[in-house]
């Protein structure tokens, strides 16, 4: 039932996220003919300007007219990203911006679990410290200007990650998806 699913998603998506902004979208399509076809999708997102967490939930279901094979898919993803300064270069550079992504996907009998860690290397920090715009930003900051082009540019660079570690665990993946993954990886 669409209404109860929307309420359930809205309640779950914001759990544990302080002052969350949560939204849910539910779409369904039904096609009449000799056999009826139905497609349903519900997506929910929660984020907060004061919390490091954000969450994404999705449910999709298909009942195609030309097949008796009903399909369902569930996705749940959560990120944890520190709140870093968008206005102060020194704070942005010295902040630990290590971020995490955990996601689970289930469809038919298959399950996929993804865990990612994104971080910034010391070499990246040194690169940003030595960047030509950094000196310009430091001069602008001394004059009280923190939103000029130079500072905006180096703050974005200071918040960027350059090391990513991801692990993927999967169970009962159909051969079609295994082959597609291998081909994409080999390309």
Automatic annotation (TrEMBL):
Domain of life of the organism encoding this protein: Eukaryota
Protein name: Vitellogenin domain-containing protein
Organism (species): Graphocephala atropunctata
């Amino acid at each position: 039932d669409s209404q109860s699913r929307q309420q359930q998603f809205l309640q779950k998506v914001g759990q544990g996220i302080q002052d969350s902004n949560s939204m849910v979208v539910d779409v369904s399509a039904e096609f009449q003919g000799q056999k009826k076809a139905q497609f349903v999708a519900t997506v929910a997102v929660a984020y907060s300007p004061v919390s490091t967490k954000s969450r994404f939930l999705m449910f999709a279901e298909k009942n195609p007219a030309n097949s008796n094979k009903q399909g369902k898919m569930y996705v749940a993803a959560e990120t944890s990203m520190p709140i870093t300064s968008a206005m102060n270069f020194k704070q942005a550079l010295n902040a630990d911006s290590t971020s995490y992504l955990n996601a689970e996907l289930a469809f038919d009998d298959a399950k996929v679990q993804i865990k990612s860690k994104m971080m910034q290397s010391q070499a990246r920090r040194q690169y940003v410290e030595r960047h030509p715009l950094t000196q310009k930003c430091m001069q602008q900051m001394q004059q009280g200007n923190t939103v000029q082009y130079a500072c905006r540019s180096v703050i974005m660079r200071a918040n960027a990650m350059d090391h990513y570690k991801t692990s993927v665990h999967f169970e009962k993946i159909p051969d079609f998806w295994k082959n597609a993954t291998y081909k994409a990886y080999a390309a």
